[in-house]
TrEMBL record, chain A:
It comes from the Bacteria. It is found in: Cell membrane. This is Branched-chain amino acid ABC transporter permease. InterPro entries: ABC_transp_permease, BCAA_transport_permease. It holds the Pfam family BPD_transp_2. Keywords: Amino-acid transport, Cell membrane, Membrane, Transmembrane, Transmembrane helix, Transport. It comes from Xanthobacter aminoxidans. The chain crosses the membrane at residues 6-29, 36-56, 62-85, 97-115, 141-161, 190-210, 222-251, 258-278. It is a multi-pass membrane protein.
Length: 290, 235
């Protein structure tokens, strides 16, 4: 097997991993801050893709879809937090888990009723069509674009979390919400914003993923499983872990598809099992009680 | 007008009624010691005043504002600071970042000046501004918790067992600091197990036992009354 093919597959894996990073970041931010395992996360990824499809159809512009859909779905996420999840704070972790599990089904059915059950193609804009010569082979421009967008989002997130007052509050609130309350921070408002941010990120992942696959009501199901795998491998609540593990899983799946296509999906679960055996808290997670 | 006025305060943890009909007032610029045995309800009283108890009844007025309808964050914004017993230095953040947390909701915008100013009162922290807060000694962490609570210049601070587990030399430093805060007009409500130290700092003392107020007098009078101290404050 030639080196060019392997390198091309590696790039494909990074593009796949970039989408996983977006989804897993949202999942891990919400878990790290609010302690909620959001089972509706995959469905919200799918809603993001449909929202992008709808905005693109209305405006005729992929670029508007890329901006408006994540913002709109992020606002939907804030409404979900405010009216459905917030009343469950202080109760057992099972309650929000069950609620988001059910909510995921509701969102999928709502989309089925509105848009139908068949997959709908979503084309990348003309400017992002075609391939580019990377020196070792030709690679789809759109996939490079996805990797670039995710890199920019990661940079913005890093600056927001590490270099701003808002980021300081978020980091501290994730570790100790009580101390933030007694230092004057309205933690419920903070959680609202964080939940909206997490949902907005997965919706952006949905819009970015749409041209790489058909938009369908079920598209969030596998993504949710993949995002959980990434989050567990990276360490629940760890942003760096979500990034590293997302890219790792993307590359592992892509490379396995090259050598043993039937094992491609299974490999990420094997990787997760291996990591859990060696390091139960994940690559960058904190041990329980630390 | 009193800085803090507590009337018939009751508080519960689930079914447990832990504070019973507490009534007392604290004037501006006072240091008041709230003492009693372990489990007497001192921490619960502070938590009820700060808005951290799940169920509270009665009336708490701070500088003329009724506190009970407000969340803990809104109470801080009125000028009520709180240093919890467990210190709660945020892991993963430096000393400087922990101090910045004390300013995020405050009106003060001159962050650098505020940290320089607080560092003068806490020279041990000044040397460690870029160190992770949780890697410092227990005493230094306590100093950081106090500095974080007062950096925004609150009108009143609730302090829960600040001397617990701290080296005597740091406890002395803390006493000097509390007197200076009082002289600057800050009101302090001090929950303490170290009764003698607290009574030497305070002007008045309140004793609670099983959630009820059982004694209230000048600190000097209680310091001289070993019988009451033995009855209600002995560990």
């Amino acid at each position: 097997m030639d080196l060019e093919l392997i390198l091309m597959q590696l790039f494909s894996g990074l593009a796949l991993g970039a989408i996983l990073v977006m989804v897993a970041l949202g999942l891990t931010i919400v878990f790290g801050m609010l302690g909620i395992v959001n089972f509706a996360h995959g469905a919200l990824f799918m809603v993001g893709a449909y929202a992008g499809l709808w905005v693109a159809a209305q405006t005729g512009s992929f670029w508007w879809a890329l901006i408006v859909a994540p913002l709109a779905v992020g606002v939907l996420g804030m409404l979900i937090e405010r009216f459905l999840i917030r009343p469950l704070y202080g109760r057992t972790p099972d309650d929000p888990l069950l609620l988001t599990f059910g909510l995921g089904y509701v969102l999928v059915e709502a989309v089925r009723i509105t848009f139908g059950t068949d997959g709908i193609p979503f084309s990348a804009p003309d400017a992002l069509q075609g391939v580019v010569d990377l020196g070792v082979g030709y690679f789809p421009i759109y996939r490079l674009f996805v990797m670039g967008v995710v890199a920019v989002i990661l940079l913005l997130l890093w600056v927001a979390l590490e270099k701003t007052r808002f980021g300081l509050i978020v980091r501290a609130g994730a570790r100790d919400p009580l101390i933030m309350k007694v230092l004057g921070v309205d933690v419920s408002r903070l959680w609202l914003l964080v939940f909206g941010l997490g949902v907005g990120l997965t919706a952006l992942g949905g819009v970015l993923a749409a041209p790489m696959r058909n938009v369908s009501p079920e598209m969030g199901t596998l993504v949710l499983a993949e995002a959980f795998v990434v989050t567990v491998i990276g360490g629940m609540g760890s942003l760096l872990g979500a990034v590293v593990a997302g890219l790792l899983v993307g590359v592992a799946v892509s490379m396995t598809a090259l050598f043993a296509p039937e094992m491609a999906t299974i490999v990420m679960f094997g990787l997760m099992a291996l990591i859990l055996l060696v390091r139960p808290q994940g690559l960058f997670g904190r041990p329980a009680g630390a | 007008m009193a800085m803090l006025e507590v009337e018939k305060l009751n508080a519960w943890y689930g079914p447990s009624h832990v504070v019973h009909d507490l009534t007392f007032r604290i004037e501006q610029g006072e240091i008041v010691a709230l003492v009693g045995r372990n489990g007497a309800g001192k921490t619960s009283t502070l938590r009820a005043i700060m808005g951290l108890m799940p169920r509270v009844e009665g009336r708490v007025t701070f500088d003329g504002t009724d506190l009970l309808p407000l969340g803990a964050h809104a109470r801080f914004r009125l000028g009520l600071g709180y240093v919890p017993e467990e210190r709660r230095i945020v892991s993963g953040l430096t000393v400087r970042e922990n101090l910045q947390l004390g300013l995020v909701a405050a009106a003060r915008t001159d962050e650098r000046a505020a940290i320089d100013e607080i560092a003068k009162s806490f020279p041990r922290l000044k040397e460690r501004l870029e160190q992770q807060g949780t890697t410092m000694s227990g005493g230094e962490q306590q100093m950081l918790a106090i500095a974080r609570a007062i950096i925004s210049k609150p009108k009143m601070v609730l302090l829960d067992e600040p001397s617990e587990g701290i080296m005597p030399v740091l406890v002395e430093e803390m006493g000097v600091l509390f007197r200076r805060l009082r002289d600057q007009g800050t009101t302090l409500l001090l929950v303490e197990q170290n009764v003698e130290w607290a009574l030497n700092l305070a002007s008045r003392a309140i004793i609670i036992d099983q959630g009820e107020l059982v004694h209230q007098s000048s600190a000097a009078a209680l310091l001289a009354d070993k019988d009451i101290q033995d009855r209600y404050c002995a560990v």
